[in-house]
Amino acid sequence: MAPSHIAPWKGLDEKTAEGLAKQLEVFQDTLVQGWKPEGVVWEAALREGYSLTAKLDPFKGSKGGNFWRVTDTEKSQSFTINLDDALTLEAVLALGLKKNDLFICRATALTDTLAANLALQCRLKVL
């Protein structure tokens, strides 16, 4: 079994405000050092219940961004994922996501405004 590309949350060593702040700082980006995009995409797909026969299609967004479309034909489901360091509203709007579409991205790629807009536009999950 391959190691995870996503760091698990570890409990607090010291249950203080400083301890929590320190732990949150460590987990600003949950991807482990040396992560590989395809590995993260596969891990996200498996966590969402997709089969090992799912198809991964990387593509460039028409308004910027590097995306992957993950499709599981056995279950008739798909989602879009982006692992860029930053996202723009224009790049995501160009995808034409609907309310029931799942979109996964890194929490560090979002501003508060973009996160709020995406949460209204589609089903947003962050890594």
Plain-language structure description:
This protein is α/β, with parallel strands linked by helices and 127 residues long. Helix content is 28%, strand content 21%. The chain contains 4 helices and 5 strands, in the order H-H-E-E-E-H-E-H-E. It has helices at residues 17-26, 37-47, 89-93, 112-121; strands at 55-60, 66-72, 77-82, 102-105, 123-126. The protein has a 5-stranded mixed beta sheet, sandwiched between helices. Helix 4 (112-121) links the parallel strand 4 (102-105) and strand 5 (123-126). The two termini are 21 Å apart. 21% of the residues are buried. The model has no long low-confidence stretch (mean pLDDT 87).
Work out the number of β strands: 5
Major β-sheet strand ordering: 1-2-3-4-5
SS element count, helices: 4
Radius of gyration, in Å, reads 16 Å
| Euclidean distance between termini CA atoms | 21 Å
Which spans of ≥5 residues are poorly predicted at pLDDT below 50?
none
What sequence of helices (H) and strands (E) makes up the elements?
HHEEEHEHE
Shape: globular
Average predicted local confidence, pLDDT: 87
Strand content: 15-25%
Structural class: alpha/beta
Which helices and strands appear, and what pairs or packs with what?
Layout: H1 17-26, H2 37-47, E1 55-60, E2 66-72, E3 77-82, H3 89-93, E4 102-105, H4 112-121, E5 123-126
Parallel strand pairs: 3-4, 4-5
Antiparallel strand pairs: 1-2, 2-3
